[in-house]
Amino acid sequence: MNELVYWSSALLCELVILTNVLGGFLHQPFSLLLCQLERVAMQNFGEMTELIALTTMSSETAMDLLFEIIELESSCLLVEPPPVIKQFVNSLFGIARDHVDEAPNCHKPKMEPLRLAIHDYEDGYSVVRTSLRLDFGREGERNYGG
What we know:
The protein is built from 5 helices and 2 strands; from the N terminus they run αααααββ. By secondary structure, the chain is mainly α. A two-stranded antiparallel sheet has the order 1-2.
């Protein structure tokens, strides 16, 4: 269990990032991981909320994660007096909601990592044009787009 607590912050962040690819399929694993945790530091809770608000491309998915999963677990995860937790969560989620509401207007159209399109027909076969997009999302690495 100590190992789960140690890795929980990183696992939750990775699940949030994967939400853009897998959408609603990650709600249950995300919820299960939160339920297994005894506590989360307020800073980690805030960072996780910020990550959801700023990186989740679907506003519906972001709102589901924030209000249907994280908000319900906040009183169990944060070890502070209930009025402090309520004020912290309300303030944090208010800011997150503003970012989520703005997000659909700011996102670039989603590019697929691999695009296949019929380019031509030759000798009875289809000639397919491909483009492969390689993105490295870690800090310090370059982003290559195709």
